[in-house]
TrEMBL record:
This is Photosystem I assembly protein Ycf4. Keywords: Chloroplast, Membrane, Photosynthesis, Plastid, Transmembrane, Transmembrane helix. Its main location: membrane. It comes from Euglenaformis proxima. The lineage of its organism: Eukaryota, Discoba, Euglenozoa, Euglenida, Spirocuta. The chain crosses the membrane at residues 20-46, 66-86. Belongs to the Ycf4 family. Seems to be required for the assembly of the photosystem I complex.
Length: 184
């Protein structure tokens, strides 16, 4: 969501809060628990797990493989659930002419160094750069703020591919607010 006044340009970044991410995490967790339990029960020769007769599964190699993949799936699904819970990646980009500062903030995992907070003077901004790379299944569209000394900071990275004109429109809107040129 973009909030723009004459003196402040701010965009809130909401990264991970899509219904697909929640469903994917839940399905991955449920499948991983199933694989883990089948592998574990085949080791202990426990015969029944809900509607599956496990005596047909020998621990080595099938049960061990299922235990391994179940463990990996649990690790990945719990990691994804923690990312969703803590809203890792959410934050904002703010360009404030009143205070003459640019603030880029992103949430991270809890802890001392869990957040990204970058603050620069608006007078250090030389230009806005647009990078569009199209590969076979991967399109990267990023808008950078170019600072003095050849530093570039990505401020907008689009998850869903936009048309080139929409990306350029967003870059030109930011550039006109900052009164700097756009480089392609």
């Amino acid at each position: 969501m973009i909030k723009r006044t004459e003196r402040i340009f701010r965009e809130d970044i909401i990264d991970s809060q899509s219904i697909f991410n929640y469903i994917f995490s839940l399905v991955l967790f449920a499948g991983s628990v199933g694989f883990f339990l089948v592998g574990l029960f085949s080791y202990f020769l426990y015969d029944h797990l809900l509607f599956i007769k496990i005596s047909n599964i020998v621990f080595f190699p099938q049960g061990l493989t299922m235990l391994f993949y179940g463990t990996l799936g649990l690790i990945f699904s719990l990691y994804q659930i923690v990312i969703l819970f803590y809203k890792v990646g959410d934050g904002f980009n703010e360009f404030n002419k009143e205070k003459n500062i640019m603030i880029i903030y992103r949430k991270g995992f809890p802890g001392k160094k869990g957040e990204v907070y970058i603050e620069n003077s608006l007078s250090d901004i030389e230009s806005i750069r647009v990078e569009i790379k199209t590969e076979f299944f991967n399109t990267r569209q990023i808008i950078f703020v170019c600072l003095q000394g050849n530093y570039s900071i990505p401020v907008f990275q689009f998850k869903e591919p936009l048309s080139i004109s929409e990306v350029e429109q967003k870059a030109s809107e930011l550039a006109s607010f900052l009164k700097v040129p756009v480089k392609g």
